[in-house]
Amino acid sequence: MDEYREEEFLLLSGIQHFAFCRRQWALIHIEQQWQENEYTVEGELMHKRAHDPNFSQKRGDIIVSRSLPVFSRIMGVKGVCDIVEFHKMEEGVKIHGHKGLFQVYPIEYKRGRPKETEMDILQLTAQAICLEEMLLTAIPEGAIFYGETRRREKVELTEERKDRAKKMFQEMHDLFKRRYTPKVKWSKSCNACSLKDTCLPKLGKAPSVKEYIHGKIAEEDL
């Protein structure tokens, strides 16, 4: 299986943008455009609380690691896991400096509450794929902690979800290589997008010149 070079790696977190809107992902990751809104600021503050690379603790049979860098040469991505727990089990991987074997359990932090789409789940799934490749283990489950509900939501990291995440990154690499930004396609979700003023999604609803001329001719014939 071919592997990506490090200079070709995409940001793992981009899968959430891509799942939300391919054009938004391209504007951010290809055209390097970004704007803050209340949602992105709140999300950033929440991640800062979770990310402390100097912090690691042991709670009973669980080791907690924060801000853990991960990558996948097969998918061609790199990123950071908010929190990864290592649960002591009879089967699992060895952790340097600790006795026994541990099951890997990634946890992603998000603002708000669980979404109807799988955007957050796909990001967690991509993190799990990276950890599986790096640690040579299987990760069947993880969790997403939502700031508004203040609770963890367990997520089954199925092979179907992993295949979907891998296919998305293949498409992302293709668009990035071609430097192609998808055209505007307006939807209700555009209203919550931090790039709506840059993207101008409502232009996608405007009629073409041909439609405009035909419309004017029709009006004159009435």
Topology:
Elements: E1 10-11, H1 14-20, H2 22-29, H3 38-50, E2 56-59, E3 62-72, E4 77-89, E5 101-110, H4 119-135, E6 141-146, E7 151-156, H5 159-178, H6 196-199, H7 209-221
Parallel strand pairs: 1-4, 5-6
Antiparallel strand pairs: 2-3, 3-4, 4-5, 6-7
Helix pairs in contact: 1-2, 1-4, 4-5
Order of helices and strands: EHHHEEEEHEEHHH
Largest beta-sheet characterization: 7 strands, mixed
Q: How many runs of DSSP E, i.e. beta strands?
A: 7
Average pLDDT figure: 83
> What is the count of DSSP helices, taking H or I runs of 4+ residues?
7
Strand content: 15-25%
Give the low-confidence spans. 36-47, 205-213
Residues in helices, as a percent range: 25-40%
Oligomer: single chain
Radius of gyration: 21 Å
Q: In one word, what is the shape?
A: globular
Termini separation comes to 65 Å
Structural class: alpha/beta
Structural overview:
It contains seven helices and seven strands; from the N terminus they run βαααββββαββααα. The chain starts with 9 loop residues before the first strand and ends with a helix. Strands 1, 2, 3, 4, 5, 6 and 7 form a seven-stranded mixed beta sheet that branches. α1 (14-20) runs antiparallel to α2 (22-29), α1 runs antiparallel to α4 (119-135) and α4 (119-135) crosses α5. The chain is globular and about 55 Å long. β3 (62-72) and β4 form a beta hairpin. It is an alpha/beta fold and 222 residues long. 37% of the residues lie in helices and 23% in strands.
